[in-house]
Amino acid sequence: MFTGLVAAVGAVAASRPVGGGIDVEVDLAGLRGPVAIGDSIALSGVCCTVVAWEPPVARFHLSRETLDRTWLGAAKVGHRLNLEPALRAGDPLGGHLVQGHVDGTGGVVAAIDPGSGGDLWVRLPGPLLRYCVDKGSVTLDGVSLTIAERRADTIRIAVIPHTAQVTTLGRLLVGDPLHVEVDVLAKYVEQMLAARGLGSPQGVAP
Q1: How many domains would you assign to the chain?
Q2: Does residue 189 lie in a domain region?
Q3: pTM here?
Q4: 2: closest CA among 45, 49, 31, 52?
Q5: Number of Cα atoms under 13 Å in the Cβ half of residue 3
Q6: pLDDT in tens, 67-78
Q7: Are residues 17 and 49 in the same domain?
Q8: CATH code where residue 36 lies
Q9: DSSP letter at 63?
Q10: To 10 degrees, the CA torsion angle through 36, 67, 2, 135?
Q11: pLDDT (tens digit, 9 = 90+) per residue, 147-173?
């Protein structure tokens, strides 16, 4: 479990095919606290497991499922990733509940200034729009954000300067992909209502 509060930004140090997946190495020098094999780290919102650790570089194995649902397989050496260690007992929940289970990928329609932030417009896959409401939560590339506006197939995020500066959001260009994780509480509510015949089951368009 994560909160969507990015702790650091790290760069891809290596990437190579292994079996049906990919092993990716990431520089975690910016993360505070210990790192150990078996730990969960969110890489731009994707929950991944440390399989090897030679400080400050950790290796992660990306399965075919992860490659099919995310853009991590296209990340080249030097590509910057948002990093967040798993939530530990007693840690403050400053963002919202984030699982690190990506629901799909969106695309940048209007980018922001890397220093001053601004309005980030993102186009989302149709099935995910149902979970997006004004002032609701959404996770984009691992960053917990508040939806300022929904319009047709896009959402607007008012990104403050701090967020633009300390995450990768300020570096995004029009057309760049983003990992999208919608609010898991909305999905649970929908599923429970569907079980009572009051809504559509998860993953089925109304």
Answers
A1: 2
A2: yes
A3: 0.90
A4: 45
A5: 13
A6: 999 999 999 999
A7: yes
A8: 2.40.30.20
A9: P
A10: 160
A11: 999 999 999 999 999 999 999 999 999
